[in-house]
Structures are given as structure tokens and as C-alpha cells.
Amino acid sequence: MASTDVARQPDKGARPLSLAGHVGFDSLPDQLVNKSIYQGFCFNILCIGETGIGKSTLMDTLFNTNFENFESSHFEPQVKLRAQTYDLQESNVRLRLTVVNTVGFGDQMNKQESYQPVVDYIDRQFESYLQEELKIKRSLHNYHDSRVHACLYFISPSGHSLKSLDLVTMKKLDSKVNIIPVIAKADTISKSELHKFKIKIMSELVSNGVQIYQFPLDDETVAKVNTTMNGHLPFAVVGSTEEVSVGNKMVKARQYPWGVVQVENENHCDFVKLREMLICVNMEDLREQTHTRHYELYRRCKLEEMGFKDTDPECKPVSLQQTYEAKRQEFLVELQKREDEMRQMFVQRVKEKEAELKEAERELQSRFEQLKRLHADEKAALEEKKRLLDDDQSSFSKRRAAAQLLQAQSLTANGKKDKDRKNSGFM
Amino acid sequence: MIERAETAVPSIAQLNLDGYVGFANLPNQVYRKAVKRGFDFTLMVVGESGLGKSTLINSLFLTDLYSKDYPGPSHRIKKTVQVEQSKVLIKEGGVYLTLTIVDTPGFGDAVDNSNCWQPVIDYIDSKCEDFLNAESRVNRSSVSDSRVHCCLYFIAPSGHGLKPLDIEFMKRLHDKVNVIPLIAKADTLTPEECQLFKKQIMKEIQEHKIKIYEFPDMKDDDDNKLTRKIKEKMPLAVVGSNVVVEVNGKKVRGRQYPWGVAEVENGEHCDFTVLRNMLIRTHMQDLKDVTNNVHYENYRSKKLAAVTCNGVDITKTKGQLTKSPLAQMEEERREHVMKMKKMEAEMEQVFEMKVKEKKQKLKDSEAELERRHEQMQRNLEAQYKELEEKRRVFENEKVDWEAQQRILEQQKLDASKTMEKNKKKGKIF
After folding, report:
1. What are the distances in angstroms from CA B284 to CA A201, B39, B133, B274?
2. Distance from the Cα of residue B153 to its chain's centroid
3. Whole-structure pTM over 0.80, yes or no?
4. Partners of B180 in the beta sheet?
5. ipTM over 0.90 threshold
6. Which residues of chain A are under the pLDDT cut of 50?
7. Are B39 and A25 a contacting pair at CB < 8 A?
8. Helical H runs in B38-140?
9. Best residue in A62, A320, A379, A406 for a mutation probing chain B (most B CBs within 10 Å)
10. Distance (Å) from the C-alpha of residue A329 to the closest C-alpha of chain B?
């Protein structure tokens, strides 16, 4: 569904012109319809209700077929959603129907978070569509739209009022999906009780500010029937896939000992009204509302969250490209900053390490110097000792030499004396 | 919590209906809503002056789009290429159509016509730009579609072939807008000349790989036959007329000549009816769809790709076009983080290696120092020992000699004592 399919005011700049004959563009709606039929239609319906309230049966009855049904237990720890898609065809119209059922809704002791899985599911479908819409290369016309178009909320036929779980859930969902509340198993309520029940429900919804789906009144062809139907909300329905013979026909009904509740009898329940409103008359409007109201709201919130604006701080309009470019700039700056920071950190570490190593070098150097000095000292001491020895040796040599000289002298003197003696002796 | 059934690609079951449901009424619902909304269509006519563009528009829509109060471009004085639009609202059978006719007065009229298509391209792009901005806003209101849905290109009926300007124009516009070439003033060609002319034109169009608007295949076989017939007649040869004349008692639009009346709506005279049926009655919606799904998307993806892949070669980043620009940035961020991690690891490695080197060097220096010190110590010690030895020897020598001297001294003393004794004894005088 392209954005051009949105309701639009007639162009004020166009001047009206009269035609002199049959041009033929009155076939435009047919061209559009033919294209739609060719493409096929798609509808997604969400059923919320307690286990065993008759969601699956009603779906089967509504679409006159047999969807795969799972019997659920009452002991699910959390609310889950089960979605199934089917291809249906009625005359030349193909419909891809997705039925989403809650599983375990209302069974837990603590039901505070019961609505959350439902909200999440709906948001997820919106998100999926939004992502596709934002892609650079996208194919929206081929996209299988999984957004929830209608939400049937099954109200227990207590006959008194809505449960607080009902109010809480519907309040959370009314801005996300078209809510159509239905009173389930309406064959347990009598007509007068039903009337009071409906009034009570509607007033509770109004006083709690819950916006349910109103059948549209803008198209004259269907405004009248829609107005009437709006007055019958919420529809009290009975579902059955079993057939009972009534008169000479087989009709869908529930057989009780006290009578037969005919599903398609408007006196017995509002099933026909529901089918009429939901499928025959307003299916397209439900789809349109989902796209133009609920989805737009989601999209607007999401984009604002991501920081997109339509105008910049000076209130000048900002185009999408500008926003993207600004974001990209920011992004690149951030990356650059991170890189620079990392480099900075490394430079720091290198500096520190260098200082450390230099310190170690210096220490080594000083040790080296110290040892050198030590060595020099020791060498000097050694030299001193050597010198001492040399001195001693030389003085000793001198003494010895002197003594020897003396001895030699005395020897020669003695010898002379002896010689003299000898000589003198001889005289 | 979602069960697997939702996320898994479903094998979608085909179910049969056992009775009346009612969604067969959907098309009617769509019909109603479409009529309520109204339609819009923008038609662009391009061609040299005097080819009958305005007349054709008036004939197509059976109205006087251009009249005394709203003169057509052909009556304007200035002849520079501009793009002008006229917007009218017409109604038929309950259906409202806002029709915008975009005219290009002065196209091809100058002496130098290079770039005369630029204003046209600019106009088309600006409409796409407007639409893109409108649909990209955060607060979107219903977007009115002013994009050009169809461009009728008027070929002068020379009978020979396309002019260079024709080829150039169509080549430049065929991927921006649906181009439908028409042979204008076809009443100057005989049917045979027209056939040849058409063949020649189609040949040249194929040669130059010009993509003119293609009629989609219909589901219905009958429709398909019709489509094929139209395809065979391309390009359509048209005649337009603002005047109604009487032929055989009937009032028809036509051109009165001394030799007869060329009827506009006569299928044997020209292809006007084919054009009108195709353009308005059967394919108007498809022209809009092709504009929206193909030409506009082309424009949009180019525009957005330019934003995200700033300067990066588009062909290399084809895979990235399947994401939105933001998802694109996320991916780039993750890549960057990985790149940084790798860089960090590398730098860390280099750092460690250098530190190890330096430390090793220090260790070696230290070892060297130790070694030398050790050596020197040993050296010194050796010298010490040597010295000690020398001293010991010397001391010994000294002690011995001193002892010897003492003995000698003693001897001397003894000798002198004896001499004294002898002397005393008178032995020696």
C-alpha cells in the first residue's frame, strides 16, 4: 500500500473543467480494483481471550473453514502468541489470512505482564514494515504486510462487567490496533442480561478512555448500516462448526436439551453482524486505519526516538537527506574520535615504557661507572704496592751493593794488611 | 513470546471455504474508497512547437485545457525551454480526476538544442524529490502524488527516422519516467509511409537501447491479445483536433481538408483511439504503478545511496543497498570496532616486540658489563698474586742476605777479636 493510497483532500490548485464527451477515466477505480485482485489481498487478525473462550471456534465459523487448532492447557507459564497464515479464495478474490491467537492469556496467577507479549508482537510487525520502508533498495509493493489489522477481544460472558485484565489490556492496545470487543459464548446470557451487560461494558470502556474501533461513517453508501451497527457493540457471538438440522436445512448451531442456538440467526446472537461488519463492509477500512493511524503513530514515535526531526533548531524544515547526512557526519566524527583516543593511549604507553627503559639504562650506566671507579681504585692500590716493592727492592739492592762494596774494600784492605803483615813478618 | 510457527517461513496452507464468508466483497470496498479519495495523474508532453501537443491534449480529454483564458504555451511569446504545468479537476461518472498537464514550450526550438532536456529532467527530479521529502517526514500527512506518470514524446512526421534530439532525449529520460513516443500530425503520412516510419523508429529505439513504456502482460488471454495488438502499432501515430465537423450526418472531431476529413477517432485514419484507450481507459493505473514502483524507487535509492556511501564506489557496495542508511551505519560501526580491535592487537604486538628487544639489549649490556668486570677482577687478582709472590721472594732474599750479612759481621767481629787478641799477645806488632 503506497502512501498515495491515503485519503487526501482534493487539490486546491486545480481548476474544474467540464468535459465535452466520454473520456473514459471513470474506469480508473476498476483499473485499481483489477490490479488489487491480481495481486491478492492480505488480512491479519489477532484474537485475544482466555483459554477456552472460543477463539478458534469463532475463527472457524467466521471463515467457514477449518484452521489448525491446538488445544491449549491452562498451565502456560507465560502468555504466548501463535500465528498461522492461510490462503483462502472466494470467487475470484484471493485472501492471505493470518490468524494470531493468544495462548495462556488470563491463566497466570500474576497477570500484570499479560499484555506485554501482545504489545510486543504488534510492535514487531510495525517495526518490520518500518525497516522495509527505510531500506535504500526496497520493494514495498511486494511486501507481505504482517501488521495486525483487527483485534478481536473476547470478553467473558460474566454478565456483570469487564475484568480489570480486560481494561488494562485494551487500554494498552487501543492506540496500536483496531480493537473490536466481542462477548464470547453469548449463549449463556439471556437477552435482558445481555442488554444490561453491553451497556455496562460500553460505559466502562468510555469511562476508562479505551478507544475501540468505530465503524466508519464517512462513506454514504455504508454510513447508515455502520451507524446502526455501532450501536450494537460489543457483538455477542456464538461460534460453532457443527451442523444441526433445523426445519429442512442444516445450519451451524449448538444443540442443547432446551433448544438449538443457531449461529446465523440474528435473534440468537450477533454473529452475522460481526461477519458483516468485519469482513463484508469494513475490512478495507480496518486495513487503511492500521496503515494511516496506528502505523503512522508507531513510525512517528520510533523516528523521534532515533533522533529524526522535521525541523532543525531554527525551525527550518529538514529533509531526510539532511538528517541522514548529519547523522553520518556525527557517526564519522565519533569513529575518528575513538581511533584518535586509542592512538593517544598507545602513545602514552610507549612514552611511559620508554621512560622506564631509559631509567634502567641509566642505572646500568651508573653501575658501570661505579665498577670502573672501583676497578681504578684497586688498580691504583696495586700500583702503589708495586711501587713500594720496587722501592724496597731498589733500596735493598743499594744496601747490598753498598755492603758488597764495603766487603770488597775490606777484603782488599785486609788482603793488603795481610800482605803487609806477611811482608813485614818476613822482615 | 512467539512460537516458532510465526518466525519460520511458512508453507502457507491453502484452505477451502465451506460456505459464505464475504471477503469477495473486498474489491467493492476498495472501489468505494478509491472513488472517495479521487485520483490524480500527471501527463507530460514534449515536442517541438507546432506538433499539435495542445490539440492532442484537448482531444484526449475532450475539453479545452487551453482556451482564451488559459492560453497554451504555443501562444506564449517567449521561446526558451521552460516547464509549465496546468492543473485541472475533471469529473466523470462520479470519479474525480486531478489532471496535471506538463508542457515544455520551446523544446527543440532553439538553434543550439544541446541540453534542452535539462529543464525536463530537473522538473521530474524535483517532483520525485518533493515526494521523497514528504514521505520521509516524521509527521506525514496524506501525500499527494505530483510525480510525472507519463511522458508523451512527439516525433515530427518526417517519414524517415528519429532525429538526434529525439534519440538523445529519450535516452536521457527512459529511466526517469514512462516514455511513450507518438508520431505527431500523422495525417501527413499515408498508411504505407506510416508503417515504414514506425518500423524505422522502433528499429532505432532498439538500437539505442531506449526503454519505452512496456505494456504489462495481462492475466486474461483476451486482454493479452489486445496488448499485443497495441505493441505492434507502436509508436502510435496520432492526429488531434479541436474542431467538430460533420461526416455522414455524424458529428466527429476531425480535420477538414478539401479532399476529405481526417477523423480523429477513426481507427483507420490514425491510432488516436488506441492511445486514448491505452492511456486513459486501461493503463492509467499501471502507468502510475510503474512510476511509483520503478522510476521513483530508482530515484530514491540513488539519492539515499549517495548519502550513505559518500564517495564509496557504488558497485562495490551493492549488498549494502538492502539496508536502511541507519542499519548501514550500524554495520559500519561494527566493522570499525573490529578494525580497531585488530589495529590495537597489532600495535600491542609491535609494542611488546620492541620492549622485548630493548630489554634484551639491556640484558646483554648488563651481561657484558658483568663479564668485563669479572675479567678485570681476575686480572687484578692475578697481578696481586704475582706481586705477592715477588714480594715473598724478595723478602726471602732479603732475609737470607741479612742473615748472611749478620754471619759475615759476626765472622768479621770474631776475626777482629782474634786479631786483637793476637796483637795483644805481641805476635803481631
Report:
1. 49, 10, 25, 13
2. 28
3. no
4. B152
5. no
6. 1-9, 427
7. yes
8. 53-60, 118-136
9. A320
10. 10
